């Protein structure tokens, strides 16, 4: 199903809301990982975050010694090996900036994304639907388990305002980031929960995702749509009734049927 075909369907329904996952769906790569690894490369992890990283490492049975960056890398490696939950590493990425202000986090995120984020990383088929849905009067949301500071900037580059971004959000005190997050973060079932709260009983006309942890959000929509789906979503496609794949004009090899 192409963007034009889907937009024609949306045009035939009363405008309500559409929701997009960010990483891998609206744009290539993972902006949360970009933000996190840039922080580790800087080596500037404050003591507030380092203390909590030590606690997280101990709780995961990992070596808690070393710098904050070294401990954070151990936690990430444990996630890659399957011994540390993906949801937990998303939380770590969000609060690792603890000890600094939200403004500092935003400035750092801007440097990570650069000035040409939309031109270099946006997925054109998903962006076309987002922009045309907004033109039809739909409320457009970005729902991501990546840190709010970087997701807000990425979404803004594609025309989605901050008040329509549902992302992993650190707890704050006096405008400064604490080594904790608001739970549940928008991951797995948390994506559907965050959207339900934002919509207040309104209709989710379409949802777009690329991975297995988007399944709950996809199931909540009248029109669930896969964008460049990863194998983990393909394997769970049967759990999402009527899941279709958004494509460019030519369907890529191995694409999901439309509809399944």
What key phrases describe this protein's structure?
260 residues; alpha/beta; Rossmann fold; six-stranded parallel β-sheet; two-stranded antiparallel sheet; 12 helices
Quick structural overview:
This protein has 12 helices and 8 strands. It is of the alpha/beta class.
CATH homology superfamily: HAD superfamily/HAD-like
The class by helix and strand makeup works out as: alpha/beta
Helix content: 40-55%
Uncertain residue ranges: 251-255
CATH architecture: 3-Layer(aba) Sandwich
Radius of gyration: 18 Å
Mean pLDDT comes to 95
Shape: globular
Total number of β-strand segments?
A: 8
Q: What is the CATH C-level name? A: Alpha Beta
Beta-sheet strand percentage? 15-25%
Domain count, please report it: 1
The CATH topology corresponds to Rossmann fold
Our measurement of the CA-to-CA distance between the termini, rounded to an integer number of angstroms, reads 12 Å
Multimeric status of the protein? single chain
In spatial order, strands of the major sheet run 3-2-1-6-7-8
Q: Could you give the order of the helices and strands?
A: HEHHHHHHHEHEEEHEHEHE
Number of helices: 12
Largest sheet: 6 strands, parallel
Structure description:
Helix content is 45%, strand content 16%. By secondary structure, it is an alpha/beta fold. The protein has a single domain (3-246), classed as Rossmann fold (3-Layer(aba) Sandwich), CATH 3.40.50.1000. α3 runs parallel beside α4 (68-81) and α6 packs across α9 (148-157). The longest helix is centred in the first third of the chain and has 14 residues, at 68-81. The protein is globular and about 60 Å long.
